[in-house]
Amino acid sequence: MSAFLDKARQSLEQNDLTGVLTHLIAMFRALQGLRELPPLPAGVREADRLLEHLGHLLFQRHPSSNSQSPPSGGTLILATMLYPIGGHTPLIKDLAEALPGPPPHLWLTMAHPSSSKGLKPEALERTGLSKTSRVFSSG
Asked: Long-range contact list for 72-76, CB < 8 A, 24+ apart?
């Protein structure tokens, strides 16, 4: 696991944000293959820290066409891609509705091969967070 984290840190130092995600995804895929762990391991604090830092960099790097500022307090949901069908996208809505406080912000990295097809508006609507979302270009 530390080799993946080291590579993710190196990518961050080289300002290769796609590399950061690539190495963290590879780490979680490797963890999922371990029989000693549950099927969806989570709670890797260093990965969480790197993802949080990556989110801040993405926000700074891609100014929005609106005047929305970075969330201060509250909750931020970071997702890679949304889909008009399937169960993962509505899960974001369920999570958002279960959280206390104001609606969370949703940031989409679009850092997935299927993102080249674009984000369908109905996919974003399925989250219930279209008013608090930001979509970052993968290019």
From this structure: 74/101, 74/102, 74/104, 74/105, 75/99, 75/101, 75/104, 75/105, 76/104, 76/105, 76/106, 76/107
What's the token pair of residue 96? 């958002």
For the stretch 56-65, contacts whose Cβ atoms lie closer than 8 Å and that sit 24 or more positions apart, written own/partner, are: 57/17, 58/17, 58/107, 58/109, 58/136, 59/107, 59/134, 61/17, 62/136, 62/137, 64/134
**pLDDT tens profile 21-46:** 889 888 877 877 777 765 544 557 78
CA dihedral 38, 40, 46, 47 (to 10 degrees): 160
C-alpha–C-alpha distance, residues 94 and 100, integer Å: 12
Residues 4 and 24: beta-carbon distance below 8 Å: yes
pLDDT average, residue stretch 58-67: 62
Residue 63, exposed/middle/buried by CB under 10 A (0-12, 13-18, 19+)? exposed
Q: Which two tokens stand for residue 81?
A: 């891609």
How far apart CA 92 and CA 5 sit, in angstroms, is 26
